[in-house]
Hints:
Blueprint: H1 14-42, H2 47-51, H3 54-59, H4 67-76, H5 78-101, H6 104-129, H7 132-139, E1 143-147, E2 158-161, H8 167-179, E3 181-187, H9 193-204, E4 208-213, E5 216-222, E6 234-235, H10 240-251, E7 257-260, H11 263-266, H12 271-279, E8 283-287, E9 291-297, E10 305-307, H13 313-323, E11 329-333, H14 341-348, E12 354-355, E13 361-365, E14 374-376, H15 381-393, E15 398-405, H16 412-419, E16 423-432, E17 435-443, H17 464-472, E18 476-480, H18 493-503, E19 507-511, E20 514-519, E21 528-531, H19 536-545, E22 553-556, H20 561-564, H21 568-575, E23 580-583
Parallel strand pairs: 2-15, 3-14, 6-7, 10-11, 21-22
Antiparallel strand pairs: 1-22, 1-23, 3-5, 4-5, 7-9, 8-9, 11-13, 12-13, 15-17, 16-17, 18-20, 19-20
Helix pairs in contact: 1-5, 8-9, 8-14, 10-13, 12-13, 15-17, 15-19, 17-18, 17-19
This protein binds shikimate-3-phosphate.
Shikimate-3-phosphate is lined by residues 168, 241, 312-314, 317, 338-339, 461-462, 485.
Amino acid sequence: MWTTLGANMLAMSVQRHDEVLAATSHLPHLLAYSIVDVLAKEEKSGDIFRYAAGGFADFSRLASSDARMWSDIFVANRVASAEVLGSMITALQGLKTALETSPDTQLGTDLHALFSEAKRTREAFINTHYNPTANTHMNGKSVVFIAGQRCSSPPQIKGRVRVPGDKSISHRAIIFGAIAEGRTEVSGFLEGEDALNTVAAFRELGVTIVGPENGKLSIIGVGRNGLSAPRKPLYMGNSGTAMRLLSGLLAAQGFDSELSGDESLTKRPMARVVEPLRLMGASINAQVGGRPPLQIAPAKLHGIHYAMPIASAQVKSCLLLAGLYADGVTEISEPGICRDHTERMLEGFGYPLTRSADGSTVSLEGGHPLRATTIDVPSDISSATFFLVAAAICPGSDVVLEHVGINPTRIGVINILKLMGADISILNPRSVGGEPVAELAIKYAPLHGVTIPESQIPLAIDEFPALFIAAAVAQGETVLRGAEELRVKESDRLAAMAAGLERIGVDCEMFTDGIRISGDPEACFAAAEIDSLGDHRIAMAFAIASLRAAGELRILNCANVATSFPNFVELSSRLGLEIRVEHA
Ligand code: S3P
């Protein structure tokens, strides 16, 4: 069964299992529990815990594990645990003797040799086993989604689910938590590869981050000027958001850094951030055509007034991050409303900010501190979109999506689907940590084609792949113009969608800046093989299209679904869409 599910099976004797686990898991737990216990008993004044910081939080994390379970584990595995503990005690005894008796130079040399070897061993382990990006690379092109239903009777999509946390907000929680003063607690964090790469980058910049575990993490902020020089290029994986936002932050630091990314990110335009950052005085170098990697050198920044040529939240956020460190005021105006999570989060961290009444201009003065806060990340409306569309194209469907972020700068998909005739209700709207949140309820209703208002494009910029599937089953034509930005997302989304739609038999015409789709409410898509081009949203859009397909859709290169929606297949199945996953 496990092999069929795609797992690599390895066999191990029970005894060997107990020995290995005693060394890698049980001993570290025993040490973590006992160090906290020793310190608590030794030191009554409370000074130790008052002055304990990131290192102690990191080391003692395991002592927060379940006490009942761990005492049971040691009862069950006492023999192997005692043995490895014996080796540990011998090593500690040797260290104690050395500390007590070795001459200083000898002690220094011996400890240096031991620490260097241990550091090398740990780094090799982290690189091979614990680097989320390495896994992406290994799986890069191998995941295939296979889904297909008989379109004469598409399933009813029914149920109530909570999709994972918002990607934009998860990145920002790490970035601002890292440079704040104090400990920021985050819940609802998206444990997808993009946001995990951001966590790894900030650890490399010297920030202690405990977790994530079940969407919760703590960031021990180092303050505005507390980041330290990374020892290697910071790998941003598939994430344009992370690269663009970090370029603004790093341009203002007193050390060199480099930002790199995967194959898709390496093709994406960075001039949009490099050019205004240079106007602020940044020393930043991109490759031919303004592409990554970006090399950044220390520079003193000054504020600018910048009118963005495109409505980009990433550019705006990059410049605001640089502006936190710049002399004077940084003012940014946008040609169309784009997402404002950065502004809301800065306000949450107590940073003074001025926004024009219509939201089109934002300005801040450099030099103020950020104060740690608590962040509850809402579910990502961009992920919820796939199930909104699934329900919108299958008669009889009835779905509730819980705790979805409905920030007005993100609800283009709701506006457009409603314009097309979808039956969507916003239930129990509330504010969670400065971000509006609600349950989204959708019941099937027939759709009709629309001309998508240009004002909605930045508000639905990531949702078009799924919206095009809705358009393919709507009555009449849907036309999108003015959306050339879709060409420079994780893939050229206009080309990728047009190619896939043609393969499943949808009549469409691609323009340089948009697409026309002729919908058919009776549509029964052709079985086909579709290349998602490694773009998570193309992969998920066609998985949803399979609900109305005559036979199987084989969707290639789906590994990157893990960047934004790691449990997409599982939640789809809970709602009635079965997707088979093959590791080719
Ligand atoms: C994002 C902004 C959008 C969006 C991206 C995330 C952000 O990009 O497409 O997925 O977190 O700021 P642009 O602002 O460049 O359009």
